[in-house]
TrEMBL record:
<dbReference type="InterPro" id="IPR006076">
    <property type="entry name" value="FAD-dep_OxRdtase"/>
</dbReference>
<keyword id="KW-0285">Flavoprotein</keyword>
<dbReference type="Pfam" id="PF01266">
    <property type="entry name" value="DAO"/>
</dbReference>
<dbReference type="GO" id="GO:0008115">
    <property type="term" value="F:sarcosine oxidase activity"/>
</dbReference>
<feature type="domain" description="FAD dependent oxidoreductase">
    <location>
        <begin position="8"/>
        <end position="359"/>
    </location>
</feature>
<keyword id="KW-0560">Oxidoreductase</keyword>
<dbReference type="InterPro" id="IPR045170">
    <property type="entry name" value="MTOX"/>
</dbReference>
<dbReference type="InterPro" id="IPR036188">
    <property type="entry name" value="FAD/NAD-bd_sf"/>
</dbReference>
<dbReference type="GO" id="GO:0050660">
    <property type="term" value="F:flavin adenine dinucleotide binding"/>
</dbReference>
<protein>
    <submittedName>
        <fullName>N-methyl-L-tryptophan oxidase</fullName>
        <ecNumber>1.5.3.2</ecNumber>
    </submittedName>
</protein>
<keyword id="KW-0274">FAD</keyword>
<dbReference type="GO" id="GO:0050131">
    <property type="term" value="F:N-methyl-L-amino-acid oxidase activity"/>
</dbReference>
Amino acid sequence: MAKKQLTIAVIGLGSVGSMAAWQLSKRENVRVIGLEQYGRVHSHGSYAGESRVFRTAYHEGGLYVPMLLESRKMWRELEQESGRDVYYEVGTLSIAEENHPEYQTTLGTVRDYDLPHELFDADQLRERFPQHHIHDTDRGILDLQGGGLRPEVSVMSALEIAERNGADLRFNTPVLGIEEYSDSIKLRTPRETFTVDKIVVATGSWSARIHPELHDLLRLQILGLTWFMPRTDVAPFLPENFPAFLRDSGPVHVFGAPSFDGYSVKVCSNPTWDVVRDVDEVPLSYTRDELARIGQQIQELIPDMNPEPVRQSVHHCAYTPNRLPVVDLSESERVITVAGLSGHGFKFIPALGKHAAALAVDGDTDAVPAEFGLDSHMQVLRERGPYQGGGH
Ligand SMILES: Cc1cc2nc3c(=O)[nH]c(=O)nc-3n(C[C@H](O)[C@H](O)[C@H](O)COP(=O)(O)OP(=O)(O)OC[C@H]3O[C@@H](n4cnc5c(N)ncnc54)[C@H](O)[C@@H]3O)c2cc1C
């Protein structure tokens, strides 16, 4: 007997939604509808801002490493299928004092998973990466599988392939309401109501607005990006010479990527911004004081940087209390939720898209760590309360 066709709607065509649409569009007997509140690849989502750091040596812990290795393969698949450059494997350098907890966890994942890497003491760091001002107590781990991703190009590519495979993607089409019935789900949009079998909810920072179960769990962290110009020469900061990096220097956490535009370098350090509940509470810009403080911090760590940013933008991301993502299949098996990527999830969105497709089409929960399920998150929420800030 022929298998029944499933109609699956992906709500939100940003980071996770674009990957879910791509993965679902490869499945047989699946009709994919994608609904996005803004236009195709916009500047309001958590993926905006030219680049994202990719790493497999992971201070967040070993639980993520299999998903990161899977995603690394899938970033290459995305490049092959789209013909676009998405991932620059220039390495990711973590610099911190040897006894810094995050340095130790990063080292732990390198050893546990035998990840290709190089280790540096302070003198070796100075010699190999003269762009950075190195303290005597600094140590470095270069994750050779790390590098820089191009988020807007990634989302555009995944959407393009999904459409080529037959997905019906609608832009400027916000989902205003979700009604679940025993045999279907109805999605209300301003012009049309869609009746589908299943939905993948990938609405990022807006999730609590349409998914009441997430209201207590998620909080939004404001996160900013700044780009600085080297005063003498951009060449040492081009991808062939400068790995993506993370630095912990006392209380200051700085991260950055090589120059993709050929004149400026993305180097960021976040002020202690409040945690908010809704995207409407996110400021549109940094204050002058914030920019001056960041410029000073950056110049101390990378002395050639002119301390006045040439570009800056303020964004947001939904966080869970323990910063693990939510990947959940509802009891009815009709609603798949992927949310709370907690400021570090872009790098593994291909794997999340694959998980979402497996949950929606096969009901297969085996590949998803139990810690990602909503039950587990709600337990953590009861024990710890919501995310309070301080994550980066
Ligand atoms: C400044 C910054 C720097 C970061 N740096 C890194 C990094 O270096 N490395 C890394 O791995 N991660 C990083 N992250 C984290 C990562 O970028 C985010 O976790 C990820 O992009 C979140 O993806 P998402 O799909 O949940 O949300 P989004 O990409 O924002 O997608 C949600 C989409 O849903 C749409 N939507 C919402 N509601 C509706 C509705 N009702 N109807 C229709 N559509 C709707 C939105 O318009 C949006 O397009 C960073 C995040 C920020 C903000």
